[in-house]
Amino acid sequence: MAIAELNRSIYHPVQKDRATFIRTAAETGGEYSLLEIELEPGGGNGLHRHRSFNERFTVLEGVLGVEVEGQVSILRPGDTALAPLGSAHRFFSVEGSPARFNVELRPGHTGFERALRIAYGLAEDNQVDRQGRPSNLLHMALLLEMGDMDLVGPLALLSPIFGLLASIARRRGAERELVARYCPEE
């Protein structure tokens, strides 16, 4: 199926956000991925790191909190924040109002885009915990690896185990099943 036919918008009921793919890594030759996020009041994600790309957050409407390596910035329309490769970061709503912002990944990352589609699909299907993480540890391990994501804090100690679990999940066909269910356009 052509890239233009992809379902461009996905929703995560736990994080309370809608992600729209503006430009995918495939569309930019891998130069960047660009998403627009609509974040509801009370929404946000947990601290995490990426090993192979930077993330730039640019606010379009509302107010957004971005934490990078323990430093919290409150962003308003036109403001940006950079989460450099390897930095612990997260975004969250502030002031009890929605926010709309762009997230740009440089370089682009097809695996992250795919992991996002699967994670949001699992959330829509009630297959996540209260923090929005996949309930199935094999799925969680696959998404962490696919999306180039490392957990931060006490769960970071489990990274070697998650690597092993991702290998087991692949051998059992879980990745193939998740991609077929949540990324059928590929």
Keywords:
186 residues, alpha+beta, 3-stranded antiparallel beta sheet, 4 helices, 25% helix, 32% strand, globular
Helix and strand content put the structural class at alpha+beta
Oligomeric category: single chain
Figure out the total of helices: 4
Count every beta strand, where a strand is a DSSP E run of 2 or more residues: 11
Specify the biggest β-sheet. Answer: 6 strands, antiparallel
Share of helix among residues?
25-40%
Uncertain segments: 1-5
- Strand numbers in spatial order across the main sheet: 1-2-3-10-5-8
Radius of gyration (CA) equals 16 Å
Shape: globular
Tell me what portion of residues adopts beta-strand conformation.
25-35%
Describe this structure in words.
This protein has 4 helices and 11 strands, in the order ββββββββββααβαα. The model is unreliable at 1-5 (pLDDT under 50). Helix 1 packs antiparallel against helix 2 (137-146) and helix 2 (137-146) crosses helix 3 (159-171). The strands form 3 sheets. Strands 1-2-3-10-5-8 form a 6-stranded antiparallel β-sheet, with helices on one face. Strands 7-6-9 form a 3-stranded antiparallel β-sheet, with no helix packed on it. It has a two-stranded antiparallel ribbon with strand order 4-11. It has 186 residues and is α+β, with helices and mostly antiparallel strands. The relative contact order is 0.18.
